[in-house]
Task: inverse folding
């Protein structure tokens, strides 16, 4: 079940956190905080290699905790396409820097929770990469914490389900996956930016008439109906 914030009280300045557990409840051990402070002094904070084994372990633990926390906020799904990542392991799951960490202006946000999320590798490596075309103001840090500064659905400041609905049914080898879009600019931008149409499947069309999926066809029809009416 999706855990939504009951109240949308600003957590830091004008930042609005849309998911649970809340970002401002995240904490690390003193050793983990210390190694991150060291990392932030380096040229590439996220890729910092600590000098001792103990610090390296603390940094690994901190990164693991960050990933687990963000996955929990999205119930184990990719923050951009909603593919399920539960049990998918490290080969499918990425710690995602929303404002790309490779750019000097965003480097200070390398370990900032509101700039981090959990995504699938497809969304992160194939589409998002180090692109920043989804950010409007790239200079004013005060704008970085505002939903309106992002053209796509922000993984922390926007509720994905306000804009998109992922509908999926699988019966044995037959699949249907559809993304229904609300009438919002963020819905369309996200759909295009991550090429969600490339994830849509409708193999039930080919399978029509097979008695083994006769009962499923009713569910598929209902699904298409929901997709057609979403956002209206
Ligand atoms: Zn994804």
Result:
């Amino acid at each position: 079940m999706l855990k939504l914030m009951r109240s949308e009280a600003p957590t830091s300045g004008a930042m609005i956190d849309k998911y649970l557990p809340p970002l401002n409840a995240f904490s690390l051990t003193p050793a983990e905080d210390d190694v991150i402070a060291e990392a932030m002094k380096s040229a590439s904070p996220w890729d910092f290699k600590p000098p001792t084994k103990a610090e390296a372990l603390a940094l690994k633990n901190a990164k693991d905790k960050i990933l687990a926390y963000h996955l929990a906020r999205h119930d184990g799904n990719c923050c951009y396409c909603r593919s399920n990542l539960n049990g998918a392991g490290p080969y499918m799951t990425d710690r995602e820097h929303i404002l790309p960490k490779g750019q000097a202006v965003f480097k200070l946000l390398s370990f900032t929770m509101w700039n981090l999320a959990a995504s699938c590798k497809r969304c992160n490596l194939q589409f998002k990469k180090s692109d920043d075309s989804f950010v409007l103001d790239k200079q004013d840090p005060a704008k970085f914490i505002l939903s309106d500064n992002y053209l796509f659905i922000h993984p922390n400041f926007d509720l994905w389900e306000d804009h998109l609905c992922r509908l999926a049914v699988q019966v044995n080898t037959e699949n249907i996956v559809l993304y229904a879009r609300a009438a919002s600019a963020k819905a369309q931008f996200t759909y295009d930016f991550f090429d969600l149409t490339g994830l849509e499947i409708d193999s039930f069309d080919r399978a029509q008439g097979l008695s083994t999926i006769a009962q499923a066809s009713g569910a598929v029809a209902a699904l298409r109906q929901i997709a057609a009416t979403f956002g209206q």
